[in-house]
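Anyone have tokens for ZnMc domain-containing protein? Sequence:
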Amino acid sequence: MTHHLFNNLNKNNKNISNSISPESPFLTRQINENILEINNKGAEIEEENDRNKRNKWINLKKIKRIKNNNNFKMADNRNGQFWNKKRMVVGIGIITLILLTCTFTIFDSLLGNSENEEEGDEEISKEDAKNYLNQFGYIEEQKGAYDEKQGHRTADEMLEDFSLESLKSAISKFQEFAGLPSTGELDNRTRKKMKKPRCGMQDVEMVRGRGGTGTTLMWRKRRLTYRLEHATNDLPTYMQKKSLQMAFDAWSEHIPLDFEEANNGYGNVDIRVRFAKRNHGDPWSFDGKGGVLAHATFPTDGQLHFDDDEQWAFMDAAKIGSYRYTDMFWVSLHEIGHVLGLSHSKVETAVMAPFYKDPSELVDWRNNYKKPELTYDDIKAAKAIYDKNKNQNNEEEEKRWIK
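Reply: yep, here.
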């Protein structure tokens, strides 16, 4: 439009210049200069218009490029969000799977514990409680199950005239020894404790022995031999021998006794070890799976028997943690204490406590086996029997454990 306007102006100027007389040169020059100036202005305006068009085109191109970039970024963001969501879903799935695995593991563990507790919840009649208390030495009026072999009355005969007060007294003593509230009542905690797997040796008579009264039973020689005379089929024989060797060595570190396995299958040895079931030739029959796990005799008889109705494992965390297997090493460590003359301990954490350790105490949170160690109470009791300088050494040992 501007271009047409200037063209019209040029035409008008030309018409004006043509109409002017040639005799007016000054006026003609002035008009020509005006025309030239108008033409220059027109050219500048056209150039500016072209520049504006060009800039507009460039701006449009930039806008398109920016729009395309934004679209690309939006698409990229959408893709990124998609993959982030996908990664998040996969991550959540993995975490959920791990949590489910842990949950089922804990559930299985709790199930194992609950099964174990359910065993403790089984009804124990007063007659069963009487037999239990008599078997483990809590009935003062009677001599206890260990005197039956000398021709005394049977357990049933001994318990016929057993009074309620005597039963309460015996229950109280058992509760006190087992670390339970001494109520004299056969409550659920007491029933559960009575159902726990344990050693077959008596408690009360041994406690009197721990107090220093009576004759000290001990080995009078330094070197003792032992032999595994009958093995279980639950474990390879070399594992059973390894378990015994490790248990003997653990005690030998603290008392002046040496233990050596007899390689031959005949001849006299000091300590005879075997697995057996039910009635097996001594006065103390085994009771099948659960209950009594093993028993031993004091010096210098040297008998150590394991109940072969149990399922045995050797330092195997997976089996022990399942609550279906019994650790031979722990039971060996305990029973050898009796073979050396030690009685049961009231200290719950001691190896010589009468009850088998809960499997959770033998397996850590990573499902690794936790090797049992002799406690200060165990070592002190052993030194009290075998250490000639026991008073001085016990004081030094006590200081070391306190540190």
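The longest helix spans residues 25-121.
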